[in-house]
Amino acid sequence: MDIKSYILLINREKKFLATIRQSLLDAGYPVLTTTTMSHALNLLSTNSIRLIICDSALEDFSGYEFLRFLKKNPLLEKIPFVFYVPVHDQGSAGKAFELGATDFIVYPLDGKIFIERIGEILSSSGDHDRPSPALPKENIEEHSAEPVSTSLPEKKARRESERITPKSDTHIEISRDAILWVPGQIMNINMQGILIETPLLGRLGMLIYIRVPLPHGKCVIESQVKHITISNHQLSADIGVEIEDSLEWTEVYNYITGYIKTEDKGKDKKAASPEKKSEPKKVNEPQMPINTNTVMLMDFNKTRFADPLLHNFNDPQSDKALEIRFYQSLVGKQLGNYKAVSFIGAGTMGGVFKGWDIVLERNVALKVISYKLSSIASFREMFVKEARFISRLSHPNIAEIYYIDQTDDVLYFAMELINGNTLADMIKESNNLNTSKGLECFLTTCRTLDFVSRKNIIHRDIKPENIMIDDKGILKVVDFGVAIVNDGKSKKRKSEGLVGSPLYVSPDCIMGQPLDSRSDIYSLGATFYHLFSGFPPFEGEDMEEVLLKHLNEDLVPLRKKNPTISVNLSDIIEKMMAKKPENRYQSYQAIIDDLDYLMS
Amino acid sequence: MKKILGINCSSKVEKVLADLIGEKGQMEYEPFHDRMVLEGYQMVVLEMGRKEEQTVQQIRKLRYACNFQNIPIVLIHGRKKYFSSQPYMIAGATEVLSIHDPSAACRQIINGHLIPSREPLAEEFEYLEPFIKNTCHILQTMASIDVKFKEVYFSNAIRIFGDVSGIMGLSGNADGTLVVTFFWDLAKMVVAKMMGMEEENVDAELIHDGVSEFINMISGSTKREFVGKPYHFEISLPSVVVGPGHQIGHLQDTSVAVLIFQVGVHCFALHVCIKPKEHRVNT
Fold first, then answer.
1. By CA distance, what is B153's nearest residue in A?
2. Which residue has the higher pLDDT, A3 or A200?
3. Same domain for B140 and B263?
4. Residues B153 and B34 reside in one and the same domain
5. Are residues B200 and A421, on separate chains, in Cβ contact within 8 Å?
6. Among residues A236, A276, A502, A585, which one has the fewest Cβ atoms lying within 10 Å of its Cβ?
């Protein structure tokens, strides 16, 4: 929503309207004009009006009737109303003030004096600012008889040195309690405070917290509401807040004003050389807090690598968005005997929901195949195959599968719901895990994958996100969405393209070679490298760079990144991550033996 | 058979819809008018007009006509150039689909929205009932307004489409958000009755006070009933927001129960999103 504050000028004489409008424009005020009360009401409902200047007689009603009508409307009654009437009407001033007019000006009047008077009215009505040099709404033609674009005269430019007006969106968040944050857009800023467009409706004097994204993190400052404008309940409100002088505020002020200037500069540059490539976004660059698509934008790492799995890594993001929208459409619905309670996230082959089994009355995880895959028979088969794989893997460290079904073309299976954290959460929360606890996890995962490999199954997507520790402390390997059986037919997988997560994928998988459990061993090594060091083994600006490093770059020994790690453990992981499969451990049992030795 | 209302649909879009919906739904078509009745429809499909503002207004009117019922409004268009769907989503559209989107995706998304809503779980009733009881009781005692609880559905919607909403952030043993949302007319009526005033004298500040007091009372009185239970929460300061389509930062992996209450011909909604503190679950 783009709210600008206009002066609404109403007079039945079109020539007169044009003259006055021009004087106001020259003084830097955005103006809307009309000749009738009915149209004026339309303009009031679709625009933010800061002042009404009206003649005593309009084309349809009198100005007094218009004022009387406005004073009965709680949303419009506070807009200052000025009569600007011909000299023969000056006798009606008493009536005008009785009805609540702010001022009564008689013409002919010197243009300069008129403009000064308007300025005084605006400042005395609490609207201290010169109008923001706002352009009318893009589609203003639909609402206004005479759209006006304000050219910026010298005088206005002078005012701009005191008050900085963002020319593009500057998003902040505001809150009453610092818990619930709603979006806001800075309309104006000076050292005393900010004018914010926001849906948060406040009261005068109310304490409001403002959260601003700064390069080093978000900064919260306190402010007090000094001014509220709500001209139409279907639009956001404008809230003017006063902010006390403090170091934080100075920093925020400098940042915002610098940000706005930089942004403008950037725009100019862009306009001058449209072919010039924009700078890559840095990781610590402030992210705009208002996201329309929360699932996709929440995790920066996820967006860098469009999908955790690389089946479709050239897909446009819109496909992923459609998938998420499909999952979202299922929240609150019932699939067979299972209620989809809440959406947990999008996995490899589909979306995962927290579900409820209405027959057995227990919590389940519902996994729904993605729309894209469900329309391809081979993927539907793969989904069913995953269910079969997991059902074959009866092991305390692998999530159990309960049921598979299809409802209204939605293919899903229900499996054990694991309450707990993934290794990825642990990496995020504590950077790296205590070594002995980490070793325990490592050993359990090896034993679990040893069991999996003995069933001739290759997981193909071992990564921190797919290893969970439930609330009873039991480790679970999850997501067998792209698992395959190593039955000697795996050569044909070359046509599938790359499968795996870029940070942990094995060189043999990247090169499309036939896979065996040694590929999972590499990914497991990379996973625990990340866990013990707090950093993935290879990082890069984009996916290609990471993949190339997996293929060509020597691994920095784990001990160099975390000196508290023993040489033996560092060596084990290094051996697991050897570039060539034949140089890695050839079985999980060999790793288990080394780990057992290390722990003893 | 699910009834679907197509509005302002060209023959091209009708054809696309016939293909997408097949025999799962029964399509009825109508041009848009100001008095649309949406009772009995499971979905509304509106073809996007050329003028953004006009379409936005139509969606708003359709959202009003839904009267807080869970009727998905799907906006369909044939544009090839990128445009922002934000104004339409803010106005109340549930989905914006292009006839050029992959039909498999459109079919599944439409399917998803047509699957019937689930009933609340027993454990959900445990925390919803006190909210229902207290909301009715507060309006009856504070404003002498008879309120009837109409229905509940579960949504993941982060947007709410009332004109004015009171929001309470919940913390303590349980996290969450509580949002009461009204259309303007009912908000004015309720606030006027709560404050013993004429409706015409209710201005924006009074609406703010009334709505924030109302959500404060609902959360305060319900909080007391949860003492000693996993749902026991602490309340903070209520916030009031205006304008349709404002986004609420509900908890991410928790369902939002939308309780619909009826006051005469008007309805209002109470969004309850509450979750006892626990660990995450598997993805």
1. A332
2. A200
3. yes
4. no
5. no
6. A276
Residue A275: what pLDDT? Answer: 35
**B205 in the same domain as B80:** no
**Closest CA in chain A for residue B243:** A234
In angstroms, the separation between the Cα of residue A15 and the nearest Cα of chain B is 30
A-chain residues within 8 Å CB-CB of B112? Answer: 326-330, 333, 410
Alpha carbon of A159 to those of A126, A164, A299, B25, B86: distances in Å? 18, 9, 42, 61, 34
Could B239 and A74 be called an inter-chain contact, meaning their C-beta atoms sit closer than 8 Å? no
Q: Which residues of B touch A177 (CB under 8 A)?
A: 169, 236-237, 239
Of A74, A330, A339, Cβ closest to residue B204 = A74
Q: In degrees, to the nearest 5, what angle opens at C-alpha A25 toward C-alphas A19 and A28?
A: 155
Contact B131, B259 (CB under 8 A): yes
Q: Is the dihedral of CA B121, B123, B127, B130 positive or negative?
A: positive
C-alpha distance from A190 to closest chain B C-alpha (Å): 25
Nearest to A40 by CA among A16, A20, A19, A63: A63
Considering only alpha carbons, which residue of chain A is nearest residue B111? A408
| CA–CA separation, A346 and A298 (whole Å) | 13
Asked if B182 is an interface residue toward chain A (Cβ–Cβ < 8 A), one would say no
Residue A465 confidence class, pLDDT cut points 50, 70, 90: confident
Give the CATH superfamily of A419-600: Transferase(Phosphotransferase) domain 1 (1.10.510.10)
Rg (CA), chain A: 33
Q: Taking 80 as the threshold, does the pLDDT of residue A516 lie above it?
A: yes
- The four Cα atoms A374, A375, A377, A381 give a dihedral, to 10 degrees, of 0
Q: Are A583 and A554 in contact, with CB atoms under 8 Å apart? A: no
d(CA B100, CA B77): 9
State whether B241 and A334 contact (CB < 8 Å): no
Q: Which residues of chain A have a CB within 8 Å of the CB of B88?
A: none
Three-state secondary structure call for residue A441: helix
What class has domain A5-149? alpha beta
CA distance A5 to chain B (A): 18
State how far residue B148 is from chain A, nearest Cα, in angstroms. Answer: 23
Q: How far apart are the first and last CA of chain A?
A: 65
CB atoms under 10 Å from CB of A306, counted, come to 18
Average pLDDT over residues A275-291: 31
- How far apart (Å, rounded) are the C-alpha atoms in residues B182 and B260? 11
Strand partners, B233: B172
Looking up tokens 């679970």 gives A476
Instruction: List CB contacts (< 8 A) between A235 and chain B.
Output: 242-243
Enter the ipTM.
0.73
Grouping H, G, I as helix, E, B as strand and the rest as coil, residue B241 is strand
| Residues of chain A positioned with their CB less than 8 A from the CB of B155 | 331-332
In chain A, what residues touch B54 (CB-CB under 8 Å)? Answer: 142
**pLDDT tens digits, A427-462:** 877 655 667 788 889 999 999 999 999 988 888 889
Distances in Å between the alpha carbon of A483 and those of A350, A429, A456? 14, 29, 10
What is the edge-to-edge ordering of all strands in the sheet holding A5-10? Answer: A31-34, A5-10, A48-54, A81-86, A103-107
| Superfamily covering domain A171-267 | predicted glycosyltransferase like domains (2.40.10.220)
Compare CB distances from A201 to B116, B171, B240 and report the shortest one's residue: B240
Of A168, A231, A173, the residue nearest A6 (C-alpha): A231
Residues facing residue B74 across a β-bridge? B45, B95
B197-216 pLDDT, tens digit each:
998 888 888 888 999 999 99
**Spans of all domains in chain A:** 5-149, 171-267, 318-417, 419-600
Residues of A whose CB is below 8 A from B203: 74-75, 77
